[in-house]
Amino acid sequence: MAVKPTIPKGTRDFSPLEMARRNYIFDTIKDVFSLYGYSQIETPAMENLTTLMGKYGEEGDKLLFKILNSGDFMKDISDEEAVERNLPKLTNKLSEKGLRYDLTVPFARFVVQYRNDIQFPFKRFQIQPVWRADRPQKGRYREFFQCDADVVGSDSLWNEVELLSMIDEVFSRLKINVAIKLNNRKILSGIAETVGEADKITDITVAIDKIDKIGIEKVNEELLSKGVSEEAIRKLQPLLELSGENEEKLTALSEILKDSQTGLKGIEELKFVVDNFDSLGHNCQLDIDVSLARGLNYYTGCIIEVKALDVEIGSITGGGRYDNLTGVFGLQGVSGVGISFGADRIYDVMNRLSLYPEDVTENVKVLFLNFGEKEALASAKLVGKLRKEGISCELYPDNAKIKKQMGYADSLKIPFVAMIGETELQENVVNLKNMLTGEQQRIPAASIPSAIL
Amino acid sequence: MAVKPTIPKGTRDFSPLEMARRNYIFDTIKDVFSLYGYSQIETPAMENLTTLMGKYGEEGDKLLFKILNSGDFMKDISDEEAVERNLPKLTNKLSEKGLRYDLTVPFARFVVQYRNDIQFPFKRFQIQPVWRADRPQKGRYREFFQCDADVVGSDSLWNEVELLSMIDEVFSRLKINVAIKLNNRKILSGIAETVGEADKITDITVAIDKIDKIGIEKVNEELLSKGVSEEAIRKLQPLLELSGENEEKLTALSEILKDSQTGLKGIEELKFVVDNFDSLGHNCQLDIDVSLARGLNYYTGCIIEVKALDVEIGSITGGGRYDNLTGVFGLQGVSGVGISFGADRIYDVMNRLSLYPEDVTENVKVLFLNFGEKEALASAKLVGKLRKEGISCELYPDNAKIKKQMGYADSLKIPFVAMIGETELQENVVNLKNMLTGEQQRIPAASIPSAIL
């Protein structure tokens, strides 16, 4: 026997059971995206490295999977270069394509490439795998799926309201209790301005982002160590202690940020989104959280993050507005706002809380046993009829021992077994067994659909 | 303006329109697979090169996309090796992973890897992209989808009958007129045996495979040039002229191959499949074609190929039985039989014959125009209600010029536009416009669902 084959570290196979569960999640998200008027696109797994490099920072460039050029990949490399071992330079000559790292950069590339054919505002969704050469660890994979929905070409805050409603709808359907956290980059800018440390916005937001984990005191220590003045830290305290309903938070913020134009604009935007989201009715809670930062350098308006309430796990969905998505590809002034569902974490949450509907993994309803050529043909005819009525069923292909055939039904959790042996064939009936209760009944073939309901 | 971004040669982006059409095809195939009791699996895009190399012949090895190792990819390459430029050796050290080339080898790997967890017979389907570093040309891509269904672990010919029924069902649903061609590898062996040239089976089958293209005379010339004796060629003639119904062909074959055990076994198998397929009823024609060979060295039993009747295009589906699928991974004696739908060619056929249902690309049913904050909120509430009834609709996010908003509906072929302006708000009605007929009516909000039917 040869060595047992394996797959690359950090990648996964999905069994029929896992696929059924994952499809349930993907289909739910897809249905909601479609209901809200988002259209699906797909982009190739491979992009030119010129498209991908430099978009995810230096660390990101290293995490890109690069494709070795076909044919003579050494042809542009001199002997000197080969032994010099300058890895970035060699990479550049050995490889011109890479696997997509996320769906956002390919989407930006798509928008620019087809800008003349696209009707704006363009509401697109995309559900595809992405690849990262990260060190694999529990819950972190080298191939995983992203489910993104974005609108580009519209500044309206109604888009934010819609995206929040979509989040609410998806998690209601999946029966996951969540809280949405909402912030706005302009509030963060306003805070830094107000405390007189506009140039330390990154240090300040990174520090206050940790407040849930390390508490106020440690946050203050970190701010001090980063060179934020004691005066500024004092001014920050009311923000760190902000609590109560969204309305109260907005009122307090208006007072604190009253001298910052940017801050007040951020409050106005938050208020529009929160008020309209509330007016439309929803299931999950929406909390303003001024400590929420996420990829700060990326977002320019609202910032969204979703937490599952009944499981300890990182954020399961995130998003926000970015005012210059397509700028890196030369198309300026196209604003976008979007969300990304973390399919793998959602899958983990669903598994840990057993949230799948009972029938999600059920496919075949009836297995017809095989008692030999003549009986099998009669069964196959019946199988064909049931399929015409949309009932998934199958004939056991081999005339094997009954125990083996029954074992197959058991193992695949097929709820009904139909038997047409010699006697049944003569009497023109089917012996139908309920695999759950063990109950058996001899019925005419035409009664099967109602008997298996 | 920067250079317009592009995607790698031979790859494709899919626009919303293209996605809607492709999803229609994939969903149809998926539904049929499920109805017949096949379960979906997925495997990673990347496989270890040890899994992939040597499985597709020397040419195939070259067409594998290889992933450059992460980190210091030069570390196992000495300076001598680097300047020696032995490409296969360097490839081996630069890369340990490749992109999957088809779905069959990963499936064989899957079966062996999880053989203790799998319930046999294992009926699996898999719909995923594959990658080949082929020279791109019209209709040939470097990234394309395969849709495979296979049964492993059952020798029963009922599997063949089922697979043919699935083909019939898929193409009936897609409204593509097809003919299925059926042959059996044992017939081909029987032919070579009978004409006394068993060792020339490849030359003989390659030659007679061309009969439709080049005619009998040229086939005979080719056979002669390959060293097939004149006596053998004379014996082959009745086979090349085989015609009529399947029943007549089988009778003629039984006479011609009467001295070949293998040949007679092949006839028996063909007969079982054809008779039972006929007994079960079907839409498309099934023709025995002894010139059909396809990957001869691969198949051991039945060989299947599907041709579209109304379009000049290569085969759009193929398959057959292979008796040792998992042997390369050390698991002997597992027989399999399967089919593969050529999604990209089917897509071409559908496009050329305009076979899509009219509503396949329709998603959003109603666009609500945006007349300002108050009106938009009223519209948004109504949008929410309609979505609860499963009606896909959307609010135009910006309070833009009416012409622009109408243009959006036009361009996306949204069939209805709903307007709630100041007057409508006061009178509690909606002004609904049918974009196809131009007809407008003022109706209560509750009447929208019936008005857009």
What does this molecule look like?
Two copies of one chain form a homodimer. Chain A is an alpha+beta fold. Chain A has helices at 16-35, 49-52, 57-63, 79-84, 87-94, 104-113, 158-174, 185-194, 201-208, 211-225, 230-240, 246-256, 261-280, 343-353, 373-388, 402-411, 422-427, 448-451; strands spanning 39-40, 46-48, 66-67, 97-99, 122-131, 143-152, 178-184, 285-288, 302-308, 317-322, 336-342, 366-368, 393-395, 416-419, 430-434, 440-443. In chain A, the strands form three sheets. In chain A, strands 1-5-6-11-10-9-7-8 form an eight-stranded mixed beta sheet. In chain A, strand 9 (302-308) and strand 10 form a beta hairpin. In chain A, helix 1 (16-35) runs antiparallel to helix 7 (158-174), helix 7 (158-174) packs across helix 13 and helix 12 (246-256) runs antiparallel to helix 13. The radius of gyration of chain A is 29 Å and the shape is globular.
Report strand % of chain A: 15-25%
**Overall 3D form of chain A:** globular
List the quaternary state of the chains.
Answer: homodimer
Helix run count of chain A: 18
Name the strands of the widest sheet of chain A in spatial order.
1-5-6-11-10-9-7-8
Chains forming the largest contact? A-B, 107 and 107 residues
What is the radius of gyration of chain A?
A: 29 Å
Structural class of chain A: alpha+beta
Helix proportion of chain A: 40-55%
Distance between the termini of chain A: 46 Å
Low-confidence stretches of chain A: none
Mean pLDDT across all amino acids of chain A? 94
Reported for the largest beta sheet of chain A, the result is: 8 strands, mixed
